[in-house]
Structure formats: C-alpha cells, structure tokens
Specification:
five-stranded mixed sheet, Nucleotidyltransferase, domain 5, 266 residues, alpha/beta, 2 domains
Length: 266
C-alpha cells in the first residue's frame, strides 16, 4: 500500500480523503465539514486526524493531491500552500485536480451536470460535465462569467441539466428562469466536494501533475515529475488587489494566460 492524501479547501467546505496509489479510487478514509473562513485553522488538524484514523503519520505518505480551484482566492491559496508544505516536508510528489470536478465526480448521475462555483463580484465559475458509466467527463475549461450568460448558453441544450455548486446560493433563480424545465437541482448537501468526490477527481485528472501520472513511477521519478514547486492554483482571473495594481501601472486588465496564476504548469 502507498497511501496518499487528497483534499480541497477552495470553498467554505473542506473535504479530505486517503487513497492508495496501488489501488485506483480505493477510499481508505474520508472526512468533510463546513469551515467558512476557517480553512487556515482547520485544514492541517483535519488532515492529522484523518491520517491518525488510518494509523498513519505525514511521513508515511507517498503523495499529496490538492484541489487547485477555482474558488475562494483565500481558500485556494490556503489549500495549495498547505499541500506544498506537506509534500515538501515528506519529500513526495504533489498532484492537482479541479474543485468543480470534485463536485461533479461526487454526483456522477447520468446526463449533463452543470457545476457552478461562486466567483464573487456577481460572477460564477461554470463547468459543464457529461456523466455516464460512473464517470464525469469535463466538457469545458474553467472560466469566470456572468451567471445570466452561462444560463443562456446552457439553455441551448435540449436535455435536462443537473445543477450543483455553491454559486447556486446566490444565482439559483437566474438558472432556473433561463433553463425552465431543463433545470434539475441536486440536493443542497451535494453542492460541495466530499472525500469520495475529491479522491475520484484526483484519479480522473490528467497531465504530468496528476495522481494517474505518478502512480506507476518510482518515488524519485514521481517527485521529479510532480515536484511540489510546479503546481499552481487556478484562479481564472486576477484578484481585486492585482486588478487594481495592473490598472494603476498600465491601465490594462484581464485574466492571466490560460486562466492560471502564473505560467501554466501542465
């Protein structure tokens, strides 16, 4: 057994899972709980408790996987920084996965899944998935958009869309009005990631910095390929402070290349 820790703290809900690099999607232990504006104080202690429940300590980990966002800027930064610290300390590879993917993989009900994150500023992080045969295939890249624009776009489909995600707390009515009978709301308890969704999304992610890429490698090769310093969070846009600074210095504004903070790490 080669245990690894996967977690997401990009929303007001923290979700953690213990998996095994030798057994895809095998869930060894999991936990999830509401932590509004408290991930910085709750995440590490929750990880320690989860490891202890499996008789493990951080030095026993063979990898760490973290939700890269998009979500709360503060939540994403806390989760990624925590993951980097754990991976550096244990000298293990650091993999990533999408926060919206973790919600989609938690649902995995057949048909279209519309996952809506809260981007603040009256905007959302939308992602559309196709669920079939126990999987969730992403149909669009992460972005930030106005809820009305996304709702009109999704209304062009001719089949029902199962809606979930924390962005619905503010913008549910917009989607219900635009989609009409095509809108099906998932139970509110399913709008955030849980341990199983986090684990499934981590295994489903592809690229050099993914669990699937490192699972078949030796410890040294995996650490070189997915070194903790390589992983970057997904923000899809600049923060308020960065927007203000850019506007002040050059009069320009916009989203970083590929929607990622810094050069794309994949």
């Amino acid at each position: 057994m080669r245990p690894f820790l996967a977690f997401d703290g990009s929303t007001d809900h923290v979700a953690l899972a213990l998996g095994d690099l030798d057994a895809p999607e095998t869930l060894l232990a999991a936990d999830d709980f509401a932590a509004p504006r408290a991930a910085n104080t709750a995440l590490l202690s929750a990880a320690e408790r989860l490891l202890a429940s499996g008789g493990l300590v951080p030095s026993a980990l063979h990898a760490v996987a973290v939700g890269r966002g998009p979500g709360s800027f503060t939540g994403v930064r806390i989760a990624v920084a925590t993951a980097k610290g754990l991976a550096h300390g244990a000298r293990v590879p650091l993999a990533g996965f999408g926060t919206l993917d973790a919600v989609a993989w938690r649902l995995r009900q057949g048909g279209l899944l519309g996952i809506i994150g809260d981007a603040m500023r009256g905007e959302v992080y939308p992602a559309l998935f196709r669920a079939q045969a126990g999987s969730a295939e992403r149909l669009a890249a992460d972005r930030v958009a106005l809820p009305a624009d996304v709702a009109r776009e999704w209304a062009g489909h001719t089949e029902r869309i199962l809606l979930a995600g924390p962005g619905l707390h503010k913008h549910r009515k917009v989607f219900e009005e635009a989609l009409g009978e095509l809108a099906v709301l998932a139970d509110e308890s399913l709008w955030v990631p849980d341990g199983l969704g986090v684990l499934a999304a981590a295994w489903a992610d592809r690229g050099d910095l993914s669990v699937s890429a490192i699972a078949g490698l030796s410890a040294d090769d995996a650490y070189r390929l997915a070194h903790p310093q390589r992983l970057l969070p997904v923000y899809t846009r600049l923060s308020d402070a960065e927007e203000a600074e850019r506007a002040k210095s050059s009069g320009a504004s916009g989203v970083p290349a590929a929607g990622v903070a810094g050069p794309e790490a994949r």
